[in-house]
Every structure is written in structure tokens, then in C-alpha cells.
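Thread: "does anyone have the structure for this chain?"

Original post by V.I.:
We have the sequence but no experimental structure in hand. Need at least a predicted one for the grant figures.
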Amino acid sequence: MKTKTILSLLILSCTFISCERISDNYWEKKEQENYTSRYMGKWVGSYTGQGNGNLIISVSKSGNITGTYGPNNDMVLGFVMDDGALTPVISETPIFTMYGSLNTRKGTWKNGSLAGDWTLTKQ
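Reply from O.Q.:
Generated one for you, C-alpha cells below.
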């Protein structure tokens, strides 16, 4: 009898935990659907230093970044955090990486041994 009671309590707690996770996942998904990055939109600027060129990025509603840089319009991808900090925004080839913040609208870039600064303005 004791074993059945313990087993029933164990099943009940597992069911409760599963329902709690489902509920948490539901509300987390709702938050993501309702979220809009304050940096959403088109940003245009340039990079200078040991190389130079134009930068154009677009920030989606969720904060994802897609864009282009340089004379060949090579693609860059990344993400902007709530405070404007960029996760490193990286191109596929050659490896052009942007660091910085959309809050300050500036940062640094690297491409192999080359480096410099970038600035952007929201359009």
C-alpha cells in the first residue's frame, strides 16, 4: 500500500512538473512573439581603418541582423541584445567581424590581421 501511495505521488509530481514546463514554454513563446527590438530597422554607415567601405544592416523585430559590407556586398549576420550590444556580427567569407553597440552606433571590426572602426546611423 505504501509503495502505491509513493508511486502515485511520484506520478502526480511528474505530471505537475510537466504541466509547469508546458505553461512556462507557452508564456516564454508569447513573450518572444510580442517582443520588438528597439533597434529594429535599417542602419547605414561605413567602416574605416586598415580597409574601408559601406555597411548596411537590417535589424528584424526579434533582433536578428542581416546586412552587407564592402565593395562586393558580402553578407553579415548577427544579433543585437536589448542594451544594443552586438553579438559578433560575422560574414561568411572573408571573415569580417563587427563588435560594438547600436546604442552608441559605433564599434570595431576585424578581418584577419586588418582592423578598424565602424559607425552606423538608423534610417
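V.I.: this helps a lot. The chain is about 25% helix and 40% strand.
O.Q.: and Residues 2-34 form the longest helix (33 residues).
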